[in-house]
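can u pls check wat happens w/ adenosine-5'-triphosphate
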Amino acid sequence: MSGYPETVMEVDRLRGGYIQQRGDTQVYVDAVSSVSFRVYRDEVLGIAGESGCGKSTLVKILYGLVKYPLIVREGSVFIDGGDGKIDLTKVDDDYKKRHVWWRIISYIPQNSMSVLNPLQKIKDHFAENLRIHMGIDKAQAYRRAVDYLLDMGLQEDVIDAYPHQLSGGMRQRVVIALALLMKPRVVLADEPTTGLDVIVQRGVLQNLLENQKRFKSSLVLVSHDIGIHAMVTNRLIIMYAGKLVEIGNTNDIISDPKHPYTEALIESLPKLGDKSLRKGLGGQPPDLRSPPKGCRFHPRCPFVMDICRSREPPPIEINGNRVVSCWLYK
Ligand SMILES: Nc1ncnc2c1ncn2[C@@H]1O[C@H](COP(=O)(O)OP(=O)(O)OP(=O)(O)O)[C@@H](O)[C@H]1O
Ligand code: SF4
Ligand SMILES: [Mg+2]
C-alpha cells in the first residue's frame, strides 16, 4: 500500500447475532457487538480471535448474507461499488445478487467445499455466474472457466467433474476460482486453508494473494492462525467475545501487542527455535448469552482494575495507527 489509503468498505457500530430457542421462548444473542473499522483498497486485512468470538458472523454480515436465525440489529456496512456507496445492511438480496455479489464483493465461506451444488458439474457453476453477470454465452463461459481453473493449478478436465469427484483441496480451489472470477473489489475469505494439507494450503494462499496484488483489490482473511496473519496480512483485527479489541498494522501488533488479550494470544504462540512450553491463555471466553459486565476480558485479564468490571472500555487511538479497547490506555 502506498500513500493515503482509499477506503472501500466502512463498517460502523455493527451489531448482529442469532435468534436462539430457549425452551418455549426465542431470545436474541449478540455475536458481533458494536464493531467499527475500514477496509482499504489494495490491502490484506486479517481477522483473528478464539473460536466462537464472532469472526464468521462478522464476515457473513459484511457480505450481506443475513438469513434467519442471523439478524443485524444496528449499524451499517458501506461498500464503494465504483459509482457510489451502498449500505449492504439496507439493500435486499435480489439487489445484492444482481449488482453486488461476485462483482463487487465475493465470499469464500468457512467449510466452503460444501457450497458447491452436488448436482451441478463444475462448468455449470461457472457458466451460471458468467451468464447472470456478464451476459456471455456458454462456450465463452466454458473457455473463461478453464483459464481460471488452470490458473489455480487444476487440470482442464475438472470442468466436467461433479463436486464429489474432486478432492477437498480441488473443490476449495474451485470455490476460490469462482470467487475471483468477476475481479471483485473485495474478497472475504473465511479460514480458506483450514482442513487442507500444507502444500495445498500454500497454493491456495498464493492464489488469493496474487489475485489481490494483480487487481489491487482487498482481501479480508479470517484465520485463527496468527502465523498465517504474520506471513500475509498488512493489518490485523483482533476480536474477543464479539468485540473488536485491537486493530493496527500486523507487524506492530505482533511485535508490540497493546491489548492484554492480544498479548496473551501472541504469547501463546510457539516461537522459532524456542522449545520451552508456551504459556496458554488461562480460562475460557465468556458465554455470549450473558457476557461479563464492563470489559468482556476482565475475568481473564492479569491487569484488571476496578473500572474494568463496571464500564466498557471505548476504542482508544494510540500512535495514530492503532486502536485498542482497554482502560490501560485511557
Ligand atoms: N446458526 C447459529 N445459531 C445460533 N448461534 C450461532 C449460529 N452460528 C454461530 N452462532 C454463535 O455465534 C457466536 C459466534 O460464532 P462464529 O461462528 O461467528 O464464531 P467464529 O469466531 O467464526 O468461530 P470459529 O473460529 O470456530 O469458526 C458463537 O457463540 C456461536 O455459537
Ligand atoms: S480494560 Fe481492563 S480488563 Fe479489559 S483488557 Fe484492559 S486492563 Fe484488562
Ligand atoms: Mg468461523
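The pocket of adenosine-5'-triphosphate (ligand 1) is lined by residues 18, 20, 31, 49, 51-57, 69, 110, 224, 288 (CB under 6 Å).
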